[in-house]
Amino acid sequence: MKAMVASTYSMAPATRRYIRSIGVTVFAIALVGTIGQSRGMIRRSLDPTGLVFVDGAFAGLALVMWRLAGRRVIIDDDSIQVTGGLTPRTLRREEILGWQTRRGYRSTRYYVIVPHDEGLGELALPPFLKVDAHFHNWMQSIPKLHE
Which residue, among 23, 17, 22, 48, has the nearest Cα to 35 in the 3D structure? Predict the structure, then answer.
């Protein structure tokens, strides 16, 4: 039997840009507020330390959104992996009980890979993946679980 080459799937580019732009916009709004308060254009509600903390928190949020939008799914003969997020996760085929779909924000559907061992935790695939027949065949090769 011929070994399968690993295939990589990511979010649709438009979705990735949209998520990243939200993070950058939120940070930009916080930065404008900081500049406005420090120049006296906006009534000061925080001291300089508070402003730095708020800007740092929004910058952190923007970075997390940027990383999550860049997640990729890599499948090969015996495993599925999600990389590019906060921490990479891999499940080997023998660890997989099955898959199901869930509804996320605004009823967006996404795949969840469920392991036999609950201690491993479910592997949620990013929504809006650009997939092909090869991806669907791989998913059909493991059992579909009912929600």
Answer: 48
